Every structure is written in C-alpha cells, then in structure tokens.
Structure prediction request, 332 residues.
Amino acid sequence: MNQLGLGIAITGSGSATLDVTLDNHQLSQIVETSDEWITSRTGIRERHLVGEGGNLSAIAAMAAREAIAMAGVAPEDLDLIILATSTPDDLFGTACQIQTLLGAPQAVAFDMTAACSGFVFGLVTAAQFIRTGVYQTVLLIGADVLSRWVDWSDRSTCVLFGDGAGAVVMQANESDRLLGFELRSDGTLNHCLQLAHKAQPKEIVKGVSVGQGNFQPITMNGKEIYRFAVQKVPEVIEKALFRANLSVEEIDWLLLHQANQRILDAVAQRLNIPAQKVLSNLAKHGNTSAASIPLALDEAVRQGKVKSGDIIASCGFGAGLTWGAAIFQWGR
Prediction:
C-alpha cells in the first residue's frame, strides 16, 4: 500500500474481434517465405487485420466496452481514458474520439505513445492518478493498426505484425494490486526499430523553407532487438519483483509483449519459469504492439486460465527503445 493509503485493482478486461485474417500461406504469395519458415522463427501462424474502411477508434471502443462490462461499471463512471498507441487515426489524438464512441462525457481522455511498451507504461501512469486520489475509475486501452505502416514487400517485417486492441478497467481499491514496477528507456538504440518521418524541403517564400513529408514504413534490426529483449526483459522483471518483495517462484503467470515466441521462451528460461506459466497468443495474432499484452490477458481471463488473485509478471519492450515490467494481481 502506498503512503496515501490508496490502492488499485484491475477489475475488467476486453479485446476486439477482427474478422480479417492473413495467414502464413497467404503471405507466401507476396514475399518469398513459407509457413514453416515463419512459424519456426517467430511462432506466428496468422495475424488479424483491420479491413478497408476500419479504424483504430472503432476497435479500441470494442475492446473498451468488453472491459467496462466485465468491471460492472458504466461509461459515465469513467474518470480517465488512456489510449496507448503508435498508430492513431488522428496525429492530434484518438482517445477523445473513443470517449465519444463510448458515451463517457465525464472522462478526461488522452493518447500516450511508448510503442510496444505502451500498455505497461499506461498501466503505471493510470495507477498514479488513482493512488493520488485524483481519479477513481480509469480505462486503459492498448491498440494499434500496424498494417497501415508495414512494408508488405519486406519479408523481415511483414510476417511479424498484426492489428488489435485490448483494454482493462482500473479502479481505486482498499488493497493495492499493482505490486511493483520498473520502467526504462534508451534512445541510443532508437535506430533499431523505427516508424520514422521523412521530410522533403518545401520553400514557402524565398528564403523560408520547411520540411514536409510523411511517415515511412516500419524498419527493424531484428537481431539487435532480439539481443536487447533477451538481455533486458529478465533484468527489468527481476527489478520489478524486488520492488514487489516477491520471488520468481511466486509468479502465477508470465505475460510478455507478444513479439516473438523465441523471445518468450528465452526470457522464461532465463527466469526459470516453466512453459506452462507463460501466456502466449502469438500464433493467432502476431505482434500487435501496445495491444499485445491486454489481448493476451483478456483471452486468458475468459478462458479461465487467469483467476482472481493470480500474480502476473508483465513486461513490454520495443521501439524507443523502451521497456518496462509491472507485477500485478488480477481482480479485486
């Protein structure tokens, strides 16, 4: 319990159902690859996509409605909506559009960007508003439409990414269910994973020029990201566990950003966590960036795997580079 005597509980989860799927066999029609090649190296068999005419706000609202329903609250009860995303419908922000779709006029709404770490960073951010007594009920959404920014001719990246949205409701609680966390950043490795803006000079009047352009497709140095994740993720989880005064053996579930099955396996092995305690839905969804942790959490909750009182060690890692771990207990 923090000094103010206010705790948080995660009381509901939800995820969006996307009807459009793209499997490995279909990908092999556009790039030189195969189902065996992708599956053996990533663990991914298919990914879900937002179809033509779809948008981020719609799938985020779908996930949010499920989380709100599970938590037993009404949209009017929400004090704050945080949208963790790198692919907004509007660069000025999409959270306010979601607020309108949900019918939550009392909620303050804003976007935050920490790429694949976005959900964990958002979880910690939301907790501070609750712990200080400012807000009682917070909706946290992780959602990304990466298909907008994938180069579908680049075999090294197009096989990895999918679209998705997941959400949780966090509420003030007598006992604090966020047991510990640790957040990190290293901008010197920014070049390893980027969705960068490329500008072209444009002269407005003689002697006055600006750079105008557009964002370029995702680029990634896969080997460097793998090396970074396998080294840093176990370390940051151990630090969060130390802050929570818990041991690895006390974890019920390991819930990592769903980037690559090899990374999940390597991290679990380094932490001596058995495979049956690792939550993974990579085979069905691929890497959905900020959506991956809440998506996997919601599936595990609805399948009856994760039960009230279970202790979950979650960790996000990715572009920035950013990484962070949060140890929390599911339910009130």
Observations:
- The two ends are 14 Å apart (CA to CA).
